[in-house]
Every structure is written in C-alpha cells, then in structure tokens.
C-alpha cells in the first residue's frame, strides 16, 4: 500500500487544457475604448478624490525636506544665539569665573576700608591717567584693554559682567597677578547730581569704594579694583560719593 501512487491522470489533463492560451475577442479593445469615451463609467470610485491631488513630485518633496532642514537649522542657530546673548547679565560671568564666595548679607552696612574720609574717585572719559581709589593707575583705550587681557590670561581669573542703568562694567580680578578692575563703558542715566558708585566687597563682606561713574559717556575706561574682590555692587549715590553703600542698588554680581 505504501508503494502505491495516486492517479492524477485526469487532473493533469485538465491542467494541460487550462494552460492553452485563450485569445480575447477581437472587439474587446474597441468596446473598452468606446465605454471610456462615452463617460458613462467614471475613472474613480464614488467619493474618491482625484489621485493627482495626492501625487507629490519628487522635486517638490525634496524641496520640502530641504526647507524643513533649513528651518530646523535656523531654529537651532537662534537658540545658540539666544544662549550667547545670555552671557551678559547683572550676575553672569563674562569669561567664566571661579567659585562664588559666601558673602555676608549685611555687607551694605559695612564701612569703607582703607578709604578713610577721602572723597571717592569720580571717573569720566576725559580725565586721562591718574590714580584709582585703591592706588592703581587709571587707564583708557588700548592700554586698558591690554591690561584687562593680561588679567584674563591668568589661570585664577574670576569675572562678572554688570549692566547699570545704561553703563556696563566688565570685571576681572586675579589674586595671582594681584590685580583687578572693571572696564567701564556707556553712561548711567540717573537723577541730576547722582552717580553710579562702584563697591568692591571682599570675602568678609567689607565694601570698599572703587569710584563713582559720572553720567558722561565712557569708552573703555579702566576702574581698578582690589584683587581680593569677591563681589561688585553698584549703587546710586551723590556724585561726591558715599562712605558706605546706601543708595538704590543698580547692579551686583559675584565673581
């Protein structure tokens, strides 16, 4: 029984008959063309939209992808740009300073150190060289920029950038170089007879006057600061200066 094979003779004969080609009627093609020309039979199923509306040329698709890529890149560039703008703020570092020191909250009431009763230096754009509040030389322009860059090149440089009512102060200090200062630009817009007094605050919270910024325009005027400055505060004070910070705080930031 196992050696017996089924008889597919009739099935094979039927399959052989099906394999023979069948020629279409001669009139089939003309009938189809006549039906299309008559308009009786729509080319699309009822409710189906014109397929041409759904066709997107490859060139258009590529253009859409390129446009999306350009838009995405522009958005990313805008984010980077906005991040860059955020570098300059009332408390942000300009070139990346060191760790912030813990300062006493009551430093506004500290008396001026090493200043005695002398009137603070009043800075303007036309003074030329002189002596700062802490005895360092006043500089302006290219000389001031060179000195600032030399401090920035130090490994222990600490920095902060401040905006005070129209004036800007880019502050850098280095204990290793035993030097520091603020590059002053612009002019503070304040009440008549008032100036922007700059205070250097050390780690003990003592405030030392670095000078008063007048309301005349400044262009890269170097205001010397002690190398142990841990915070800079700018307050609105009379043009002849105050012995301690007591006016409206215009800006402050830790280095």
TrEMBL record:
Protein name as catalogued: Anti-sigma K factor RskA C-terminal domain-containing protein
Keywords: Membrane, Transmembrane, Transmembrane helix
Keyword Transmembrane helix recorded: yes
Keyword Transmembrane helix: yes
A cellular-component GO term for this protein: plasma membrane
Region span, Disordered: 96-136
Transmembrane segments: 72-95
Domain Anti-sigma K factor RskA C-terminal: 74-248
Native organism: Corynebacterium jeikeium (strain K411)
GO molecular function: sigma factor antagonist activity
Matching PANTHER family: ANTI-SIGMA-K FACTOR RSKA
Listed GO biological process terms: regulation of translation
A Pfam family matched in the record: RskA_C
